[in-house]
């Protein structure tokens, strides 16, 4: 099971500060079906892990948990901290993504990613027309 997650030093520092501010111990990285292109990343701050979580230490004292069912969806993800003007945000780049929506909030996976032993849908099946939703 490939759980390779890359986190930039600035993203690690941001995550470390947020975990401290929320008095948590872990950040859970996950995905949910949503957005205009298939999947969106989810972030939750946790006091403890759940049964079925995989824990990855991405830096000294920075731990990310992933539900086993989300591992194939987030494997290969790079997390960075991007600042534009006065705004800063975590940005996710998934090496398995086939496409991203225009706003960068969601992504579609190529049909080569194997989820629960079943090939995922083609990106065209996951994608929706973002202009039709506005």
What is the annotated CATH architecture?
Answer: Sandwich
CATH class: Mainly Beta
* Total beta strands: 11
Helix tally? 3
Radius of gyration: 15 Å
What's the story with the biggest beta sheet?
A: 6 strands, mixed
Q: Might you state the CATH topology name?
A: Hypothetical Protein Aq_1857, Chain: A
* Proportion in helices: 10-25%
The best one-word shape is globular
How do the strands of the widest beta sheet line up side by side? 4-5-2-3-9-8
N-to-C CA distance: 38 Å
Q: Which consecutive residue ranges, at least 5 long each, have pLDDT under 50?
A: 112-134
Number of domain modules: 1
Strand content: over 45%
Q: H/E element string?
A: EHEEEEHEEEEEEH
Descriptive report:
The protein has 134 residues and is α+β, with helices and mostly antiparallel strands. It has one domain: Hypothetical Protein Aq_1857, Chain: A. The protein has helices at residues 9-21, 71-74, 123-126; strands spanning 6-7, 26-34, 38-46, 53-59, 62-67, 77-84, 87-94, 97-100, 106-109, 114-115, 118-119. The strands form 3 sheets. The protein has a 6-stranded mixed β-sheet. Strands 1-6-7 form a 3-stranded mixed β-sheet. A two-stranded antiparallel sheet has the order 10-11. The longest helix has 13 residues, at 9-21. Residues 112-134 have low confidence and may be disordered.
Give the arrangement of secondary structure elements.
Blueprint: E1 6-7, H1 9-21, E2 26-34, E3 38-46, E4 53-59, E5 62-67, H2 71-74, E6 77-84, E7 87-94, E8 97-100, E9 106-109, E10 114-115, E11 118-119, H3 123-126
Parallel strand pairs: 1-6, 2-5
Antiparallel strand pairs: 2-3, 3-9, 4-5, 6-7, 8-9, 10-11
């Amino acid at each position: 099971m490939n759980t390779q997650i890359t986190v930039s030093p600035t993203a690690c520092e941001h995550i470390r500060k947020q975990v401290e501010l929320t008095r948590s111990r872990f950040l859970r990285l996950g995905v949910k079906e949503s957005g205009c292109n298939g999947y969106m990343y989810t972030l939750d701050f946790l006091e403890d892990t759940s049964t079925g979580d995989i824990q990855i230490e991405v830096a000294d004292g920075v731990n990310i948990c992933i539900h086993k069912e989300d591992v194939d969806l987030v494997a290969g993800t790079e997390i960075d901290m991007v600042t534009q003007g006065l705004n800063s945000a975590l940005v996710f780049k998934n090496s398995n993504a086939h496409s991203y929506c225009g706003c960068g909030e969601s992504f579609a996976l190529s049909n080569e990613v194997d989820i629960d032993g079943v090939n995922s849908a083609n990106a065209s099946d996951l994608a929706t027309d973002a202009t039709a939703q506005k």
